[in-house]
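Might I ask for a little of your time on a matter of protein folding? Here, with my thanks, is the record as I have it:
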Amino acid sequence: MTREPGSRVPIEDLFSSKGRVRILKELADAGELNISELCRRASLNHSSTKAHLKVLIESGLIEEKTFGRIKIYRYRVEDLRARSLRNLFDLWSS
């Protein structure tokens, strides 16, 4: 099932994967990264990172920008849920 970006992905689906949480944390910290750097930082392979990114894009927490053949993934700080998650990550790690 494919959802539109920004649609409501249930929170259980969002946090059901350690890989998705790692990707969210890395993007919340960095702001934006390409998929190779995300794979490296989150210690995930390319195909699982891509699958996690699809769910995160559908949730509206991140967005994909394309520059020619290069795709950049950006944490959407303008989204209140994304800002709240970033605050939670900051609090949890302090």
Residues 21 and 58 are 15 Å apart (CA to CA). Helices lie at 11-14, 18-30, 35-42, 46-59, 80-93.
